């Protein structure tokens, strides 16, 4: 049985500052939950038990001396594409990866806020797919239905937060990899503006489509982690103006013009919206209307935006494969994607990157008529474990695009999006909806998500005990 469920991020920080609990106690309980959940969930690639306990003891000394930082003594997890000093960054791959010599910028900022890093969560190989399974670590499972995937590629972070192993976690999102697992595990998943959270030591990962984001059970916790991790490294390619979002929670967003967009963006593969997801997202639109917002069914002018995505995604895979200590250990689908990336890495890649400005202009014009877009996060509920992992390369691509056609355009644009829970489909499988905004729109999205949360109280329902 699970020892307990993690309190939220803000609640943990409050209890620590009030002297109601010690960081040592919180971290010990977190480590016990991680261990208890390992046989079923398999959420963590690396658990930093010894280092985390030492950090907790240091936090307790600082708290006792009157020190106050936003996350002082609070345990959090990060995805295993993020450097933690002294630990390898395998990014879902098999092989002997060297330990990182220093923290990535996002981890450095979390530590500066006082957070205790308890471990690194599982992700599929190089973050390519909407499932978290691989020969290097096995299967990461959904706490709501362990026979199903939590999604990917930030599936380990999502499973850990949804099950209450940790209060919140970092993920990354290059084609929906924060929002998809958030949808399939009933979490808030914030994909911020490109560059909001530094990706250093990778200044422009996956040719600019990948960003770091946050996963938590409440909007306030996801926003708090976002603010703690946010900020630029001096050598980042993308350095948006500083912005805080946590204080937007509870702020009245005003009466907004909301576009309900149910049509999948153009893909080369047919994608069909599951009727129960359509119903859940439409119900959420009705909730927004009941809150006083003006909701109109309309779709952004995506055009053939996919042509600007594939060269960037596959070129990013090629760059990472070139760094792998033993490429022979990689999934054949990874090696195939890398070959395509090398093929598209010249003129097609340059054209794809040039297209971004025109796409931002065309889709940005849509926001003259609307403030926010509401769209499904996925077209399908979470698949069963193994349903996609066992497929070949082309079949995996078809299945992944068919299940998840809605998230990736916002990676091409670099703009913010927030997954919110939208209820359940089938036999109690969580599904989600995206609130999508223009550049720098995190505060409005967070304010609207929090307004929905105050009405729907989705965070009050827990999944079944993953160990029991």
From TrEMBL:
MF GO annotations: amidase activity
Pfam families for this protein: Amidase (PF01425)
Keyword flag Electron transport: no
Broadest EC class assigned to this enzyme: hydrolase
PROSITE patterns: AMIDASES
Amidase domain sequence ranges: 26-445
Enzyme Commission no: 3.5.1.4
Keyword field: Hydrolase
PANTHER family per UniProt: GLUTAMYL-TRNA(GLN) AMIDOTRANSFERASE SUBUNIT A, MITOCHONDRIAL (PTHR11895:SF7), TRANSAMIDASE (PTHR11895)
Family: Belongs to the amidase family.
UniProt protein name: Amidase
């Amino acid at each position: 049985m699970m020892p307990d469920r993690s309190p939220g991020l803000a609640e943990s920080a409050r209890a620590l500052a009030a002297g109601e609990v010690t960081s040592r106690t919180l971290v010990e309980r977190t480590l016990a939950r991680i261990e208890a959940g390992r046989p079923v969930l398999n959420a963590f690639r690396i658990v930093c038990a010894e280092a985390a306990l030492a950090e907790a003891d240091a936090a307790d000394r600082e708290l006792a001396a009157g020190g106050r930082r936003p996350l002082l003594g609070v345990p959090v997890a990060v995805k295993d594409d993020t450097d933690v000093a002294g630990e390898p960054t395998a990014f879902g791959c098999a092989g002997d990866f060297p330990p990182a010599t220093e923290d990535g910028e996002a981890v450095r900022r979390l530590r500066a806020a006082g957070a205790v890093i308890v471990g690194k969560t599982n992700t599929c190989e190089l973050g390519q797919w909407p499932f978290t399974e691989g020969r290097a670590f096995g299967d990461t499972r959904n706490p709501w239905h362990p026979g199903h995937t939590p999604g990917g590629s930030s599936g380990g972070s999502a499973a850990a937060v949804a099950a209450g192993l940790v209060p919140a976690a970092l993920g990354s999102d290059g084609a929906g990899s924060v929002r998809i697992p958030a949808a399939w595990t009933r979490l808030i998943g914030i994909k911020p503006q490109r560059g909001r959270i530094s990706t250093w030591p990778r200044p422009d990962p996956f040719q600019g489509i990948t960003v770091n984001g946050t996963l938590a059970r409440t909007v306030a916790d996801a926003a708090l982690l976002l603010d703690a991790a946010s900020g630029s490294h001096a050598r980042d390619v993308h350095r948006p103006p500083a912005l805080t979002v946590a204080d937007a929670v509870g702020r009245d967003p005003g009466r907004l013009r909301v576009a309900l967009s149910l049509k999948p963006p153009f893909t080369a593969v047919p994608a069909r919206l599951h009727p129960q997801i359509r119903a859940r997202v439409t119900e959420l639109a009705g909730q927004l209307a009941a809150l006083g917002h003006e909701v109109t069914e309309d779709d952004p002018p995506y055009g053939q935006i996919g042509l600007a995505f594939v060269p960037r995604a596959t070129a990013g895979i090629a760059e990472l494969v070139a760094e792998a200590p033993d490429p022979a250990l990689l999934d054949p689908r990874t090696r195939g994607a890398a070959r395509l990336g090398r093929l598209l890495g010249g003129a097609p890649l340059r054209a794809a990157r040039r297209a971004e400005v025109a796409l931002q202009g065309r889709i940005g014009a849509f926001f003259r008529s609307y403030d926010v877009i509401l769209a499904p996060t996925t077209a399908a509920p979470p698949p069963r474990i193994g349903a996609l992992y066992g497929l070949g390369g082309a079949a995996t691509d078809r299945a992944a695009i068919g299940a998840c056609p809605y998230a990736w355009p916002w990676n091409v644009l670099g703009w913010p999006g927030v997954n919110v829970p939208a209820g359940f489909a089938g036999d109690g499988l969580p599904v989600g909806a995206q609130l999508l905004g223009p550049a720098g729109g995190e505060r409005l999205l967070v304010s609207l998500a929090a307004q929905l949360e105050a009405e729907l109280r989705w965070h009050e329902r827990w999944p079944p005990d993953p160990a029991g």
